Amino acid sequence: MAILKHCAEAGTRVEFSFIYHIPGYYEGCQMNFRYFKADQLLYDLDFGWTNITLTSYINVTSNFPLDRLERIELEGLYVSFEKHLYQLEWAEVETDSGMYKLRFFGSDQDFQLVSDVESVRKFGRDLASDWADAPVR
User: d(Cα 71, Cα 74) in Å, to the nearest integer?
Assistant: First the structure.
C-alpha cells in the first residue's frame, strides 16, 4: 500500500491500494483510495484508472516535483481524464523549504496535506511497486 503522510499533522494521510489490474497499455486497474485525518477514516473510494493515467501519476510522484511530463508543462498541476482523483496539485509551502502542499482532487474529492519531496517520491515508488504486485485479472 502506498501511503503519503502529512508532515505536521499526526494521523493525516492518504493511502492508495490495488484491488486488481489488467495488463496492457490501453487497459486499467481497480484501486482503493482512503483519506485519514487524526487517524479517523474520512473518505474511502474504490475507483478505476487506466494504465496510461497510472503510469503518468507514478512518473509525476516518483520524480517529484516534476516540471514537465512528456511535452506538457505541469506548473504544479497534473490532470488526467479520469472521473476520480483526476488532479494532483502542488505548491511549495515556503521557497526552498522542500515542503509542498499537495491537493488530491476529483469529481467528489478534495483532500490536502503537506509533505516533503522525498516522501512524495517514496509514495510514487511504492505505488509503482504495488502495481507490479497487484492481482492480475
Answer: 9
Cell of 14: 492518504
Query: Nearest 10 degrees: CA dihedral of 120, 22, 1, 35?
Result: 70
Q: How distant is the alpha carbon of residue 50 from its chain centre? A: 14
The three-class DSSP label of residue 59 is helix
- Per-block average pLDDT, block size 10, for the chain (137 residues)? 97 98 96 97 95 95 88 82 85 90 90 96 98 96
Pairwise CA distance, residues 72 & 80, whole Å: 12
Closest CA to 50 of 26, 28, 81: 28
- If you write DSSP's letter for every residue of 17-57 in order, what string do you get? EEEEE--STT-EEEEEEEEEETTEEEEEEEEEEEHHHHHHH
| Other C-beta atoms lying within 10 Å of the C-beta of residue 2 | 21
CA separation for the pair 35, 16 (Å, rounded): 9
pLDDT at 111 (0 to 100): 94
**Strands lying side by side in the sheet with 13-21:** 2-5, 13-21, 28-37, 40-50
